[in-house]
Amino acid sequence: MAAGLAVTAAALLATGAGPQDAERVRGHPVADPVPERPTSETVTAPVRIADGATVRLLRPGDRVDVIAAEESATGAGTARVVARGARVSKVPTVSATESGALIVLTVPRRTATRLAGAGATSRLAVTLW
What we know:
4 helices; alpha+beta; 2 domains; 5 strands
């Protein structure tokens, strides 16, 4: 038993875990404490999605990932996810146009900033959860 305790203590030291993390190190789930205040404020962000037909599939409460597709001069482009699990707040009833359609998402403030930047330089698309 002493050898087992010594091995456990060595494992805790090697992982940098303290006594409060002992259960997690052994593989038992332990809930993290809930912060008293939210760490990121959520905001509503209007986002223009390039494919208006896709927007017609969305309803308030849906969760979406937002992907920014950048086109280069050679025609080949790159795509990156700029928001994961964003909640659709509103889907305005304005008809879709060639330039896409607007939706309103509820996201953390930092994500809203990324969405605004990506929307200015890329075509945005969504995938539904």
